[in-house]
Amino acid sequence: xxxxxxxxxxxxxxxxxxxxxxxxxxxxxxxxxxxxxxxxxxxxxxxxxxxxxxxxxxxxxxxxxxxxxxxxxxxxxxxxxxxxxxxxxxxxxxxxxxxxxxxxxxxxxxxxxxxxxxxxxxxxxxxxxxxxxxxxxxxxxxxxxxxxxxxxxxxxxxxxxxxxxxxxxxxxxxxxxxxxxxxxxxxxxxxxxxxxxxxxxxxxxxxxxxxxxxxxxxxxxxxxxxxxxxxxxxxxxxxxxxxxxxxxxxxxxxxxxxxxxxxxxxxxxxxxxxxxx
Amino acid sequence: xxxxxxxxxxxxxxxxxxxxxxxxxxxxxxxxxxxxxxxxxxxxxxxxxxxxxxxxxxxxxx
Lengths: 277, 62
Prior knowledge:
Largest interface: A-B, 20 and 22 residues
Low-confidence stretches of chain A: none
Distance between the termini of chain A: 38 Å
Oligomer: heterodimer
Helix content of chain A: 55-70%
Order of helices and strands of chain A: HHHHHHHHHHHHHHHH
Distance between the termini of chain B: 25 Å
Number of strands of chain A: 0
Radius of gyration of chain B: 14 Å
Structural class of chain A: mainly alpha
Radius of gyration of chain A: 18 Å
Strand content of chain A: under 5%
Number of helices of chain A: 16
Structural class of chain B: mainly alpha
């Protein structure tokens, strides 16, 4: 385990979160900051602002007129969405295109984006909590998979193959054949990037939300499973994790209405990476 | 009611209906495979039924 920690230390020195993202996050939390304050910070990073505008103008948002300024994008979409988009850009930049078998990292990114979108929808329909940071939790909850693929290719390849051959989740495969798993990686990296404890809890407990005292792991657990069964991206295995029965109660989901819920989800999620890139 | 030529894949000239030729057959097979370990779990079975209904309506990505 010490070996993995020292390797993760080296990796987190390489994968630093950009200052601009830290600054944007601080400004969004401040009650005194304005849209133009945030736009000024984002505009300092030309590559970031161009990529955010590309996402804002993607077919997913469906604006008829092109949005050409970050300031205007913030006014239309709101602070939190712009923060989420900035984090999405950062994560997308992080993703290496290194494919392993039929594992495509961009398709995994599509899966993570959809988990975020579904999570926001579930929270909205259940009126469970404030809809803040939920998308980011979905986007990042299995970031360890991407890092595993990129920096531990032999281990990833072995676990990926094992999961396919044994029809189990990647996590079960890792726990069987490796002495660490992608949850440990997600937790470690996000801690180094100073993400809040609520997001770390999602990484820790999204496969077993009953252990958590928080509600967010239930939301992401359910979204993760819905995303898998609806095949909205590639989660790196073909199995469905064991469903927490309590998650249905917490999220006020009636199992007789899966059909209606799935239909709603299919309308709001992205069905190919090209929809958003 | 469709006749057989509607059901067979374009270019095929068969008088029999093969399972492979039914619309969304591979999506349905994939759903059944996905839930193979959950045949005793009523919630998962309800989820499978909903997915099969969506698949039969052509609403699931292939």
